[in-house]
């Protein structure tokens, strides 16, 4: 009797695990093969060799690029080198990526930059908010950009228990922002267990010096976040659920869901075209290849553009798709005046003329 019971239990567990594995593989779009979509005028950006996870472009065409992310479980080509922030002037005929100097006093050795966001204050000061993971913890660093000196002056480090596993941020003012926590757990083993079990414990937090609170929850794995041009709506990418949520922003900063756009790919960061309001997404066509890095079976890249997201039938266009022979693991796509920059989690970055 005892043996039968044990056998039955083992059988049930195995079946559950099998089903979970299938489901997980499906969520990662593990069997997807990519049909290429080419762009004619692209080249890899010199000097960026170990990621351009997030990109933010100022209205005058200066692009900030965060590079050198080390994220538990994901590939890195330079595990011992600290991260850096590059600047690119997209008005130049042949823009170059230049590393920004960071002011003394900031711990550069543990710099591990992830999502970034800029904010221009009333006095034209430019602030750069950077999600940082020193020793795999989460902080938000606030810098002031000094253009004449190609440098960033570190102003402060923000830590908070609600900012536990931060992926991306969108600045709302000189010291307030929304942040996405891509997991509930920050410990890497628990984090992957959470992902594997499909728990929906990922959330969005509002931060200001006087108030910090959860403003939206119940997501599988929220990544990119951005705001509409009229500042009424917040767009949130749920990577593992293949969703973009359109959230209505309220006066008390809380967010309520207006609609969900279902996609066929794992959307990472979101960029809002400052002229048209279109949303550009850097996507992972096959999450299995990203998570289980294999040089013989590389993760590819995919860029989508979404027009009229508020309408009944938004138009989703696949702008670029590539199997990894050029660009591995795209995480962001940003546009400025007919130019497109595509960044990746740990690989290179592409410059295209559209
Ligand atoms: C990707 O995943 C979605 C489920 O969200 C599924 O509907 C779709 O068929 C998958 N695509 C491919 C090409 O496997
Ligand atoms: C949001 O979109 C703006 C352009 O409207 C872009 O400059 C910025 O990089 C995006 N922000 C984030 C947090 O990705
Ligand atoms: C915030 O505002 C919304 C919309 O006005 C309201 O429904 C919600 O209850 C408010 N939340 C809090 C915590 O006050
Ligand atoms: C990737 O795409 C390129 C160009 O389309 C092609 O030459 C190459 O064989 C592909 N590689 C794999 C592994 O499919």
TrEMBL record:
Location in the cell: Membrane
Matching SUPFAM superfamilies: Calcium-dependent phosphotriesterase
PTM summary: Glycosylated.
Gene Ontology biological process terms, A to Z: response to toxic substance
Membrane topology, as annotated: Peripheral membrane protein
Catalytic reaction equation(s): a phenyl acetate + H2O = a phenol + acetate + H(+); An aryl dialkyl phosphate + H2O = dialkyl phosphate + an aryl alcohol
Cofactor requirement: Ca(2+)
Glycan-modified residues: 323
Signal peptide range in chain numbering: 1-18
Family listed: Belongs to the paraoxonase family.
Annotated PANTHER family: PARAOXONASE, PARAOXONASE-RELATED
Full protein name: Paraoxonase
Species in which this protein is naturally found: Platysternon megacephalum
């Amino acid at each position: 009797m005892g043996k039968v019971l044990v056998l039955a239990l083992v059988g049930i567990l195995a079946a559950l695990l099998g089903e979970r594995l299938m489901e997980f593989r499906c969520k990662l779009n593990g069997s997807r093969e990519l049909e290429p979509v080419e762009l004619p005028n692209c080249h890899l950006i010199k000097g960026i060799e170990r990621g351009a996870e997030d990109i933010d472009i100022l209205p005058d065409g200066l692009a900030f690029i965060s590079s050198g992310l080390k994220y538990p479980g994901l590939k890195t080509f330079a595990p011992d080198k600290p991260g850096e922030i590059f600047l690119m002037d997209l008005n130049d005929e042949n823009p170059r990526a230049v590393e920004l100097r960071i002011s003394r006093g900031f711990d550069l050795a543990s710099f591990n930059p992830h999502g970034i966001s800029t904010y221009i204050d009333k006095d034209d000061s430019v602030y750069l908010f950077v999600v940082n993971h020193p020793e795999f913890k989460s902080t938000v660093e606030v810098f002031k950009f000094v253009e004449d000196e190609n440098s960033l002056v570190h102003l402060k480090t923000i830590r908070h228990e609600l900012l536990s596993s931060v992926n991306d941020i969108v600045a709302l003012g000189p010291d307030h922002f929304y942040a996405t926590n891509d997991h509930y757990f920050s410990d890497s083993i628990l984090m992957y267990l959470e992902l594997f079990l499909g728990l929906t414990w990922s959330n969005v937090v509002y931060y200001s010096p006087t108030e910090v609170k959860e403003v939206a929850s119940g997501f599988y794995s929220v990544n990119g976040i951005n705001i509409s041009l009229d500042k009424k709506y917040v767009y949130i990418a749920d990577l593992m659920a293949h969703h973009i949520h359109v959230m209505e922003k309220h006066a008390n900063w809380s967010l309520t869901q207006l609609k969900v756009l279902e996609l066929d790919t794992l959307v990472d960061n979101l960029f809002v075209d400052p002229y048209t309001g279109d949303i550009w997404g850097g996507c992972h066509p096959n999450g299995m290849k990203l998570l289980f890095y294999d040089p013989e079976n590389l993760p590819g890249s995919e860029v989508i553009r979404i027009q009229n997201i508020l309408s009944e039938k938004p138009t989703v266009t696949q702008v670029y798709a590539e199997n990894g022979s050029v660009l591995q693991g795209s995480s962001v796509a940003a546009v400025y005046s007919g130019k497109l920059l595509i960044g990746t989690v740990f690989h290179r970055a592409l410059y295209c003329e559209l």
